[in-house]
Amino acid sequence: MRPEAGLISRHIETLVRFNDTPGEGISRMSFTEQDRGAREYLFKEMRNLELAVRFDGAGNIYGLLAGKVPEKPRLMTRSHIDTVYHGGKYVGVVGTVCALEHLRLIRESGMCPDRSLERVVFSEEEGPNFGSSLAGGKAMNGAYTE
């Protein structure tokens, strides 16, 4: 089973449409209408993969593929979809969509890993809204509270 490059490209091109500055790079600030649309798209894609999906108080999205041995520590990967003003279309997004593709391949193979796999889409990683980057990760680690 191989990754489907067309599907990865489709996800990237779909996310590019959630942009406040078309033709001038990608501007998708956290907690905006564009960000909400992109997050709704990813939520739907995670649900299509039959992941257990949840949000936390910081707006991070978690998609969990349960493993055979739930007591084992989860294997977590993370990325983000927010941008700086006029940013590139691949920054953060590639990590997000490749993680989805990885889970799709696992699902289609019928394999169930021993440990659970969790994919996280962090919010406010770039930091233009609050003057501090990595806000979603800091919140997940307890440095920020609701």
SSE layout:
Layout: H1 5-16, H2 33-48, E1 52-55, E2 61-65, E3 75-80, H3 93-109, E4 117-122, H4 135-140
Parallel strand pairs: 3-4
Antiparallel strand pairs: 1-2, 2-4
Helix pairs in contact: 1-3
Describe the structure.
- By secondary structure, the chain is an alpha+beta fold.
- It has one domain: Zn peptidases (Aminopeptidase).
- The protein is built from four helices and four strands.
- A four-stranded mixed sheet has the order 1-2-4-3.
- A hairpin with a 5-residue loop joins strand 1 (52-55) and strand 2.
- It is globular and about 45 Å long.
- The model has no long low-confidence stretch (mean pLDDT 90).
CATH level-4 homologous superfamily: Zn peptidases
Which geometry do the CA atoms define? globular
CATH class identity:
Alpha Beta
Tell me the quaternary state.
single chain
The CATH architecture comes to: 3-Layer(aba) Sandwich
Helix-and-strand structural type: alpha+beta
Calculate Rg over CA atoms. 15 Å
Distance between the termini: 42 Å
